[in-house]
């Protein structure tokens, strides 16, 4: 390689998923100001890491990258992966449903959480276009869980106080409560 040719291969992201009670999980994320190649590359890297970890969702702050980016993939098939940039909640349904949730940042813990059945959201894509989507069921739940991460909120914050008490030992084992 001559001196004028520089290495063009994209560097791999040396990310690892932050684990509760890591304080960086509590930092609010900043919006994406411009969709650059670096943002696209890192957005896709976030999706790759989610696949590797066999998660159905991963938010950028979970790897210590405090920008408003989420990756979601309910099926686990690569072609079904979704990346949301600067997601915003427009409205949520009054109707709710309760289901068990887990989080890659809180390993070994699951708990039932009540969330809206539907959510209308806006989000930007990799071309910088803003779109509105109506999400329901598991997709709405997953989106709202990941969106919480952008605000520094974890699903365990939303558990009932009885449930919080019952997982106290497990949280202690992870190093919490904060
Ligand atoms: Zn999570």
Any overview of this molecule?
It is a single chain. The chain has a single domain (3-173), classed as Peptide Deformylase (Alpha-Beta Complex), CATH 3.90.45.10. The termini are far apart. It is an alpha+beta fold and 178 residues long. It contains 4 helices and 7 strands; from the N terminus they run H-E-E-E-E-E-E-E-H-H-H. Mean pLDDT is 93; it is low at 1-8. Residues 103, 105, 145, 149 line the site of zinc ion. The site of zinc ion (ZN) has 4 residues, from helix 2.
Brief characterization of the structure:
With 178 residues, this protein is α+β, with helices and mostly antiparallel strands. The protein has helices at 37-52, 137-150, 161-166, 168-174, and strands at residues 57-59, 69-72, 82-92, 96-101, 111-116, 118-124, 130-136.
What is the fold's blueprint, element by element?
Layout: H1 37-52, E1 57-59, E2 69-72, E3 82-92, E4 96-101, E5 111-116, E6 118-124, E7 130-136, H2 137-150, H3 161-166, H4 168-174
Antiparallel strand pairs: 1-2, 2-3, 3-6, 4-5, 6-7
The protein binds zinc ion.
List keywords for this structure.
5-stranded antiparallel β-sheet; Peptide Deformylase; 4 helices; 25% strand; 178 residues; alpha+beta
Instruction: Classify the secondary structure makeup into a structural class.
Output: alpha+beta
Number of helices: 4
Spatially, the strands of the biggest sheet line up as: 1-2-3-6-7
Q: Over the alpha carbons, how many angstroms does the gyration radius reach?
A: 17 Å
Give helix % range.
Answer: 10-25%
The CATH architecture is Alpha-Beta Complex
| Integer count of domains | 1
**What global shape is seen?**
globular
Order of helices and strands: HEEEEEEEHHH
Distance, first to last CA: 51 Å
Number of strands: 7
User: Which hetero ligands occur in this complex?
Assistant: zinc ion
The CATH topology is given as Peptide Deformylase
Look at the structure and give the mean pLDDT. Answer: 93
Residue ranges: pLDDT <50 for 5 or more in a row?
1-8
Largest sheet: 5 strands, antiparallel
Strand content: 15-25%
Q: Would you identify the CATH H-level superfamily? A: Peptide deformylase
CATH class: Alpha Beta
């Amino acid at each position: 390689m001559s001196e004028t040719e520089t290495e063009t291969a994209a560097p791999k992201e040396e990310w690892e998923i932050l684990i509760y009670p890591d304080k960086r999980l509590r930092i609010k994320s900043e919006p994406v100001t411009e969709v650059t190649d670096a943002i696209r590359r890192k957005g896709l890297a976030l999706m790759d890491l989610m696949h590797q970890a066999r998660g159905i969702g991963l938010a950028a702050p979970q790897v210590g990258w405090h920008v408003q980016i989420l990756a979601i993939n309910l099926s686990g098939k690569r072609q079904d992966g979704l990346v949301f940039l600067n997601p915003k909640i427009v409205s949520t349904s009054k109707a709710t449903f309760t289901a068990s949730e887990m989080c890659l940042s809180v390993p070994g813990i699951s708990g039932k959480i009540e969330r809206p059945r539907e959510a209308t959201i806006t989000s930007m894509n990799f071309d910088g276009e803003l779109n509105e989507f109506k999400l329901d069921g598991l997709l709405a739940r997953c989106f709202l869980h990941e969106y919480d991460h952008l605000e520094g909120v974890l699903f365990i914050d939303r558990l009932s106080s009885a449930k919080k008490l019952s997982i106290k030992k497990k949280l202690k084992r992870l190093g919490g409560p904060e």
